[in-house]
Amino acid sequence: MGDAEPEVVPAVESTADAIAAMEIRGAATIADAAAAALATQAEGSPAETPAAFRRGLRAAARTLYETRPTAVSLPNALRYVLRGVDGDTVAELRASTIDRAASFRRDLEHARETLGGIGANRLRDGDVVLTHCHSTDALACVEAALEDGKSLEAIVKETRPRKQGHITATQLREWGVPVTLIVDGAARRYLDAADHVLVGADSIAADGSVINKIGTSGLAVVARERGVPVMVAAQTIKLHPDTLTGHTVAIETRDEREVLSDEERASIRSSDAPDGSVGEPGSEDGLTVENPAFDVTPPRYVDAIVTERGQFPPESIVTLMRELFGDTTDEPWAE
Ligand SMILES: O=P(O)(O)OC[C@H]1O[C@H](OP(=O)(O)O)[C@H](O)[C@@H]1O
Asked: What is the Å distance from ligand 1's center to 251 Cα?
């Protein structure tokens, strides 16, 4: 084998592509898919030596890690699985990877259910929740409240540019929850009809800042102005250990075509530009489109972070982070 490129099985590449393209999306779902992909790598690895097996697994983890930068549940999942890989033979390493991935996935599901039960306690019979994007953790709170016999209604923000609000609306309608779908710009107008803003998170920083879908921070600010509490549902794999040592969370910027199609761009361009400039997306034609996928909501606009370990005021989340992560922010997938 020597210095040959470690082999990453095709199914891992496919999962990575699906995460990058957002066919697999949502912080917890991405973490689940990444753990499953590492198990697939272990199952399909052609490695004949323990060292080659470990190299292949690290390469698979890097492939997954490099897909999307903001949701820390992805590196947290990779770290969890890789740390549990143990054994002296390829067979032992393979088995321990598969076991570890399975236990991660079980814990993830269990954490979501527990979190849902805790979050449901904040929701009263007859409440209206206003949602942004699509979050399985946020919806777990609604589901648990419904199971408790409470009736809820929802105002669902469309969530441009990818309209994940439609996924939320679909799920809520399946549960029989009446849904009012609104465009993002209508949020302030509808806040007076809401009892809670309920959102998920892609990452939570040590100071209690919430990194979530673009538009969350503006929503939280106007919710504070209207006196509507903001509840963030996020299991502890969304806690970002690097922020304990002062690192900031990278905000993903995505393709401008999610915001403006080539056709739309061409029609803007065809209106009279004094310099007559024309060009393809990204070229110097005087029209810039920016598409950040996430923003940062400062802790002072967040009322509660609901995790499977209980609910916390954002300022106290750092204590839980230290307990769960200590000072370990290593990257076991590094070459
Ligand atoms: O883990 P759960 O609660 O499902 O989702 C958490 C967050 O992940 C999503 O990001 P994207 O749609 O993948 O960009 C949204 O920002 C959502 O709030």
From this structure: 13
Task: Tell me which residues have their CB closer than 6 angstroms to ligand 1.
Answer: 25-29, 133, 135-138, 164, 199-202, 212-213, 293
pLDDT, tens only, 218-229? 999 999 999 999
Active site includes 141?
A: no
Q: What is the pTM assigned to this prediction?
A: 0.94
- DSSP state at residue 252: P
ipTM: 0.98
CA distances, 288 to each of 259, 260, 269 (Å): 11, 10, 11
Ordered domains of the chain (ranges, CATH):
10-114 (1.20.120.420), 120-245+292-325 (3.40.50.10470)
Query: What does DSSP assign to residue 124?
Result: P
pLDDT of residue 269: 76
Out of 72, 133, 217, mutate this one to test ligand 1's pocket (max ligand atoms within 8 Å of CB): namely: 133
